[in-house]
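Form P-L/3: holo structure prediction, ligand zinc ion.
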Amino acid sequence: MHEMSLTEGILQMLEDQAKAQAFSRVLTIWLEIGELSTVDPDALTFCFEALRSGTLADGARVEIIRLPGQAFCMDCARTVRLAQRYDSCPDCGGDSLQVTGGDEMRVKELEVE
Ligand SMILES: [Zn+2]
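OUTPUT (holo model):
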């Protein structure tokens, strides 16, 4: 379950941010997770709730924002909506797709005090 190490990365990032920006507690954390990323939002939330105790994010709320998958189709020469990473183009059925969005995970916003 790589969500565990992702969560550790997020918590480490929060510690660094807290030092840099002088806050002591995280109240809410908004995470953007692309539909094409390999991150499972439920697993991530679970790991976060398991690992956050004793950290500055203890009791923090996790809000997950799903980003739609996007790819550029070489055959259609335009950007199309992609529900799953290895799907074919929804318009022409071709496989010459390059993922252009929705495969990332990042912290979008923090509510701190
Ligand atoms: Zn196409």
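COMMENT: Residues 3-69+103-112 form a domain with the hypothetical protein PF0899 fold fold (CATH 3.30.2320.50).
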